[in-house]
Write a structure and sequence with these properties.
The chain is mainly alpha-helical. The chain has two domains: 1-27 and 150-239, Endonuclease Iii, domain 2; 33-143, Orthogonal Bundle (Endonuclease III, domain 1). The chain is 59% helix and 0% strand. The mean pLDDT is 91. Iron/sulfur cluster binds at residues 159, 162-163, 203-204, 208-210, 213, 215-216, 219, 221-222.
Length: 245
């Protein structure tokens, strides 16, 4: 495949290459909106399997959303167990459920589906100081509201920065995300989100494993890092081997 020359080509190639590597799962059945909000709080910055396990623990340990709402943050943290950032996630989940209950005396959010996507996202964003982040809003927009959004968590932003898709300071994550959404189609939004987070949490981690990264021939950061180390990528070594006749 030829090297990408612009942002669109780079993103298209990134999706193709990462899909081959990570095989995104089929889209799961749609959850109720409130459930998807809590799942997004488990999913942010974590791979699918870890988030699924954290969410399943919550559902097993508590009878319903109200029981989580009236539990203390340490109790919910204990249930989340070894989930990374369990304390922070527990705090956000409890705060959100408390706030939502105080506003509506219910654990329903499905009314949002009846509003336009933009209006629904705006309404959800009103919980931003109560556990909801830009990632939560975008995730729920993509998964439960049928809208086009590309949720960006810290690890995903790190990868996009290393690929030079995002450059400069991010003053406003929402605008950065909106600009990315012009390059990733709605049809590709689900797969792009899945593989980007998987990549960010397994290969393009804090200290990136560039040598074994399938993007290392196109990623400016990887190219520079490997040149500095004087190493060829595993991909390059494999491609340079003489083919058997
Ligand atoms: S080459 Fe390195 S920096 Fe670039 S995406 Fe891969 S792991 Fe991340």
């Amino acid at each position: 495949m030829a090297a990408p020359t612009n942002k669109q080509q780079l993103l298209d190639k990134t999706l193709t290459v990462l899909k081959k590597k990570f095989h995104p799962p089929a889209e799961p059945d749609k959850r109720p909106v409130l459930e998807e909000v809590v799942f997004a709080m488990c999913r942010e910055s974590l791979p699918t399997a870890t988030a699924d396990a954290a969410f399943a623990r919550l559902r097993r340990a508590f009878v319903d959303w109200n029981e989580i709402r009236v539990s203390s943050v340490p109790e919910v943290t204990e249930v989340l167990g070894d989930t990374p950032d369990a304390g922070d996630r527990a705090k956000r989940i409890v705060e959100f459920l408390q706030e939502h209950f105080e506003r509506t005396y219910s654990f329903e959010l499905d009314d949002l589906e009846k509003k336009g996507v933009k209006q629904a996202a705006k309404q959800l964003a009103r919980y931003k100081d109560k556990g909801v982040t830009d990632f939560t809003v975008a995730w729920v927009t993509q998964r439960a509201l049928g809208g086009h959004a590309v949720p960006l968590d810290g690890p995903s932003v790190r990868v996009l920065r290393r690929l030079h898709v995002i450059e400069g300071d991010i003053d406003d994550l929402e605008s950065t995300r909106a600009s990315l959404e012009h390059h990733v189609s709605k049809a590709n939004g689900y797969d792009f989100t899945e593989v980007l987070i998987d990549h960010a949490t397994t290969i393009c981690v804090e200290v990136p494993l560039c040598r074994e990264c399938p993007l290392n021939r196109d990623c400016p950061t990887g190219i520079e890092a490997l040149a500095r180390q004087g190493k060829k990528s595993i991909t390059a070594v494999a491609e340079d081997k003489p083919k058997k006749k």
